[in-house]
Design brief:
It contains five helices and 15 strands. It has about 300 residues and is mostly beta strands.
């Protein structure tokens, strides 16, 4: 039992987003107490931090048509699921983006953590690595933007040379950097309260044994949401036009359905799976694997169906 984060941070949405970004990229298993993802407030006595969930901006925040056991928070009209679900810049949307990136990144879920020295004390930076995936995480903890940031690491952080990093939070965005022989990256910039997550492109991001190394530009992401019920979304990138096959297997390795089996053009693709087969029969709860095959590229990831 502790005061709600949004209250502790003085109802500052920028600070709340940075806190979430740091929390979701550091080692460990993150837990989100209900309502933190929408900015619920509360402090002091236990009942003040266990107020009804704020679902809408309507009567009783959409929690009940009756009389709630505890008064609704005063900020429910602005901070609720209905309003924030329609705003791509909301705290709820930000949490969803962070969780999606974390779910799709073995380095963030279980990788090593190597702190980086920053020329700006307000900027926190570190590397997360697992298998062949290396991810650079940066967070500007204040509202002021910074330019000309220098990060310093070591041989355990990254390799000297030129790198075109891929922005995991902003699909399609890249960042060209140079790591000096002294393991320094110079000329970086961050907006106020910005969190940045970049993947080094020479890595695969695969789970060990997850498939063959992909060609440059191929990428299969973790499904979202995961676990899911009744549907989930799978996204992948194709650097060129190819025949694509996306299959789903059960935990025994048996093919249960084929989601895609056709020629597709290059670009970012998205498919929604409703956990049903071709005849419309629903699958039972359990662990499933989905495998993408396109030319010489093959990658497999796990997903969990809960009912």
């Amino acid at each position: 039992d502790q005061n709600r984060v949004f209250t502790v941070l003085g109802y500052d949405e920028g600070k709340a987003k940075v806190a979430a970004g740091i929390y979701m990229t550091l080692p460990g298993v993150p837990f989100v107490y209900y309502g933190e993802e929408i900015g619920m407030i509360g402090d002091g006595a236990h009942e003040n931090i266990r107020t009804p969930m704020q679902w809408t901006d309507g009567t009783n925040a959409g929690f009940t048509t009756g009389t709630p056991w505890q008064a609704i928070n005063s900020n429910y009209e602005q901070y609720n699921v209905l309003v924030e679900d329609q705003d791509a810049g909301s705290l709820l949307s930000w949490y969803r983006r962070l969780i999606g990136v974390r779910n799709g990144s073995p380095a963030l879920r279980r990788g090593t953590h190597v702190p980086l020295a920053s020329s700006m004390s307000q900027v926190m930076a570190f590397m997360r690595s697992y298998g062949q995936q290396n991810v650079l995480c940066m967070a500007n903890t204040v509202a002021n933007p910074f330019g000309s940031i220098t990060l310093t690491g070591s041989a355990s952080s990254f390799e000297p040379g030129d790198h075109a990093l891929v922005n995991l939070l902003v699909p399609g965005d890249t960042l060209n950097i140079t790591v000096s022989p002294a393991y320094e990256i110079t000329g970086l910039s961050l907006d106020g309260h910005e969190v940045a997550i970049y993947e080094f492109p020479s890595t695969t991001g695969d789970e060990p044994g997850g498939g063959s190394p992909p060609d440059a530009g191929f990428r299969l992401e973790q499904n979202y949401p995961n676990p899911f019920n009744p549907s989930t979304t799978i996204m992948f990138d194709l650097p060129r036009a190819e025949h694509v096959k996306l299959d789903v297997f059960n935990i025994k390795g048996e093919l249960v359905t084929t989601i895609i089996d056709r020629y597709m053009t290059e670009g970012r693709k998205e498919v929604r799976w409703t956990a049903t087969d071709d005849d419309g029969r629903s699958f039972s709860s359990g662990v499933y694997c989905y495998r993408l095959v396109s030319g010489d590229f093959m990658q497999t990831k796990k997903m969990v169906l809960l009912k």
